[in-house]
Amino acid sequence: MNPAPLLARRLAEAIQDATPPPGAADAVVLCLTDFLACALEAVPLAPSRAARSVAAMEGSGPATVIGSPHRCGPGGAAFANAVAGHGLVREDMHAAAVSHLGVVVLPTLLALAQTRPVTGCCLIDAVSVGYEVGARVGRALVNPVFSRQWRPTGFTGPLAAAAAGCRLLGLDAAATASALALAANTASGLNEWPRDGGEDMFFHPGFAARNAITAITLAQAGVYGSAGALDGPAGLFTAAGSPAPHDLALFPAADAEVQTVFRKALPLCNFAQTPAQAAQRLRAGVPDFDSDAIMAITVQTTEAAVRYPGCDATGPFHRVLQAKMSIPFCVAAALLHGDIGEHHFALPASAALLRLAALVTLESTTEFTAAFPARQGAAVSVLMRDGTRHGAAMSALEPADAATVRQRFASTAVQRLGKAGAADLHDAIKGIRRSTDAGALLRLTETVTGT
User: What sign does the CA torsion over 34, 36, 39, 40 have?
Assistant: First the structure.
């Protein structure tokens, strides 16, 4: 009796056969809109500039680098575009996988779509499959202990993008299984960066996207990836200390995983979103709120948030990422300003903000922890100088809705591309389902201002 196929082969067959539910297409278009808005806005930032320089070293090719007239090979373009998409720390989020799947899957597929004619419908299906694989792997692999050391996106991302690329290019099950195995061998990403604000984080999606394209290309060339790379005795799950699932069914319910991701309302860490929103709500609900009179701040949230590296930092803050990861910093900014925008992370921070951040005490609660990841709740309370207390609680974060995503895209696209260029890109995204050349969409982002 022959043994059952190992997980990579079973997953490869599922990737070939999967049919995304109808609602997935609208979610994909929204994810694409959000990704391009983030990438275009991040064009002038240092990590984006560095990634474009690396891509330019790879010579010419068919693939667009957002914000550059230079085209290069698909691996270099996917690398640079993934870094740009991650540059604001405002990318889409799959809470259960603790992963940012869009900034790996989308740049990978958009680069591959420029190497051959690809219809918009095929692109949408491949995106749905990529998110599904990354989310299912992440649900099984990632937990608070795992994410104390490892960056989840660096592990889920290569597999998600490899799966998506194999689906887009129509690779057979054997080649897809090898691509998944090779991609699993590239899973990486340490979570040391939040402690001192290192820029490692920005490049994790770039490494994942480039490695996924390399894995796909090698599999196309006939390279055999080990059958047990996912669930063997020395496979990915074993190495990560997580039990390997018997199966990873794709689209088992009415909704696709891409429909469960959310777009961030604020440009900061996922785990700081709800605490910051609760702080905004608290401030707005108190007439004549005086932040100078605050004597103590208590933030209650999930265990995952409290334990994630960098989320408990109270300073000093030498780099922007330290501030964006810090729940105390983000709550302090919300209490001080009432809102949080990119400009509030300019360093050095004000003495007033640093004073408030130092007053924050973080606590995890059974209620919020039990509800996670389906709901990410938080509560903020402040003790004032006169002994009064004010508080606000949210049972779940409030993501950016579709209208906000589209507004952010429109504003950034006009700023970067001009009115005519923004209109062309908007029309290309809106009409992606009817497109016979999905790769043409990205070429509309080549000439931008403010780089």
Answer: negative
Helix (H) or strand (E) holding 303: helix 303-307
Residue 380, φ and ψ in degrees, nearest 5: -125, 130
Residues of the chain with CATH 3.30.1330.120: 270-394
CATH code of domain 7-259: 1.10.4100.10
- Pinpoint the residues of the chain covered by CATH 1.10.4100.10: 7-259
- Please give the Cα distance from 143 to 155 (Å, whole number): 13
Q: Quote the CA–CA distance of 178 and 220 in Å, as a whole number.
A: 9
H/E segment holding residue 272: helix 270-284
Q: Which two tokens stand for residue 266?
A: 């604020």
**CATH number of the domain located at residue range(s) 270-394 in this protein:** 3.30.1330.120
At residue 389, the 3 state secondary structure works out as: strand
In this predicted structure, the answer to whether residue 2 has a pLDDT above a threshold of 50 is no
List the structure tokens of 180.
């998944």
The residues pairing with 94 across neighbouring beta strands, listed in sequence order, are 99
Closest-CA residue to 429 (of 22, 23, 36, 21): 36
287-341 per-position pLDDT tens digit = 999 999 999 999 999 999 999 999 999 999 999 999 999 999 999 999 999 999 9
**Residue 314: partners with Cβ closer than 8 Å, 6 or more residues away:** 326, 328, 329, 357, 358, 360
Closest to 109 (Cα-Cα) out of 42, 67, 185, 163 = 163
Tokens of 72: 């290069």
The answer to whether the CB of 57 falls within 8 A of the CB of 75 is: no
DSSP classification of residue 359: T
Sequence-distant (6+) residues with CB within 8 A of 253 are: none
Number of other residues whose CB lies within 10 A of the CB of residue 47: 18
